[in-house]
Amino acid sequence: MRRTYDDLVHEAAGVSVDGWDFSWLDGRATEERPSWGYARLLGERLATVRSALDIQTGGGEILAGVPTLPPVTVATESWPPNLRLAASRLRRRGAWVVADDEEPRLPFVSGAFDLVTSRHPVETWWKEIARVLRPGGSYLSQQVGPRSVFELAEFFLGPLDGSARGIEQARREAESAGLEVLDLRSERLRMEFRDIGAVVYFLRKVIWIVPGFSVERHQERLRALHDRIENEGPFVAHSARFLIEARKPDGQAA
């Protein structure tokens, strides 16, 4: 028996959205993964260094899944619920978790890390990243690209610009901070939402897709989308991701 709109929405509105684990969506929504395999690349890089910093670690899910952590591993996070999750996951691995706000400056001395990483940062603080990297150190990051999930955002908000987060802008900003870009590639990836509960959960968790989202505020559009999914099948959107790896030149001062 098909579940009603009210049942699906009530369930999704009540479940916890702490952390960066999307397993609640299993069987209800899908998203293709980038071909480069960020978690694999992260594990490879971490295995070769002695000190690393993971910025905006979320609940520490990605870092905690890496086979080997460097002797000095530090993660930062600003949102208290995620900070608690990250601490519980990463401290048992010997990593330090530091509460940090979402404004630079990073609370570390210059030249402290061989490797700096971040997955889906809200903003990339290129000058600060360059400062805390030792000469010869690298930055590895998977980021959200332009017009990511815009099919869903525009269903609720109408036409959007979406010109920000271009990969060439990332290249320019990295180079302006004195870093040498070693790798830069992007992909658009198919997403499917199979019921309205999946949409509600996703928008509660990924808050920048529809800023200020709530079930009450967006009830009319939610009901319209529920009817569309019921009549036409899964709602299809596309996420945008890019990978960037940059290196601080050996001769550059810490």
TrEMBL record:
GO biological process, alphabetically ordered: methylation
UniProt xrefs under Pfam families: Methyltransf_11
Domain Methyltransferase type: 53-139
Keywords associated with the record: Methyltransferase, Transferase
N-terminal signal peptide: none
A molecular function GO annotation: S-adenosylmethionine-dependent methyltransferase activity
Gene3D superfamilies referenced in this protein's UniProt entry, alphabetically: Vaccinia Virus protein VP39 (3.40.50.150)
PANTHER family to which the protein is assigned, alphabetical: METHYLTRANSFERASE, METHYLTRANSFERASE TYPE 11 DOMAIN-CONTAINING PROTEIN
Protein name per the record: Methyltransferase domain-containing protein
Lineage: Bacteria, Bacillati, Actinomycetota, Actinomycetes, Streptosporangiales
